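Re: the 360-residue chain
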Amino acid sequence: MRNIFLGICFVLIASLYFSNTAFGQVDNIADLLRGGVEDANILVNEYLRPVGNGFGVDLNNGWYSTARPHKFLGFDITVMGTAAIVPTSDESFDLNNLGLLNVRPLDPNDSLTPTAIGNDEDGPAVAILVRDPLLPGGVAVIDTLTMPQGVNIGYVPSPMIQAAVGVLPGTEVMVRFLPEIEINEDFGKIKMFGLGVKQRLNNFLGGLLPVDLAVMAAFTTFQAQTNLTVEAEEGLSPTGANYDNQEVEIEATSLTFNVIASKKFGVLTLFGGVGIESADVNIKLKGTYPVTVVDDPGGPGGPTFAIQDFEDPIDLSFKNPNNTRANLGFQLHLVFLAIHGSYTFAKYPGVNVGVGINIR
């Protein structure tokens, strides 16, 4: 089961260093499914929520480092890194507040557990319940699990490659593009496309402003897929189902609109912007998955177990609708080299740094 979360994290941020830590902590999604698909979706959703939200914020960062567009056919190609800073309130969640049906903390007073970016300490022990009128009290504990650790970093990183070119007087087009590529058999395929446009406003305002002023809008789409191999528990009779169709699918879309102001001082440009952003990140566990479940809870020798197949068991959506944002930053232009950095003020604050070839 470890490959499920390695794959999810990799396709979310296209970065091995984060995937090998954040989701390498979790190897018991099949066991969580023993408590039912509904509980499993709730638990995985809460654990991954700051990563999904943070990645959506990352897609909207780094689109600009000045309000002044390139001249006609001026261009830049920039490599950058961005990171969404996760609020402290999203570093953990309380199991008692989730309305779970068949999963509960063994100790009701020990119910706070880390999210994926939270503390690198095990969460509380939980019981997997089975409900049946034949059981004493109608319920029995069939298994216990320990909720997974976080990675204790507090942010969600993401790399980006972006190009921009001047196409009309005062107008610049920006592109983020990654054709579908297969990283390897373990981590699957990813692709990305983003398109933005920036329009300088000074020409429409009579040249009276002491700063460059522009508006920009951009959207990004990101898709990824990784294959999985989850096999039935040994010693139990197989159902005969085909498990070769297992995969994680990630789809993310983001949209941002900003008003930007900047001022050039020699080789240094200071800039700032205000705007709105939205993002949707969807994670689906697709295919057929074998899960060990209780077959007969009241057998003479105790409960007996069997394999039950679950189809497309996980379907999560992380939405960040119309959040306001503001940012401040700088660009240092050294001949054909440009270096920039910025900080974004938002529900999930963000930092962005980049370096690239810049010919204005």
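The CA atoms of residues 245 and 287 lie 5 Å apart.
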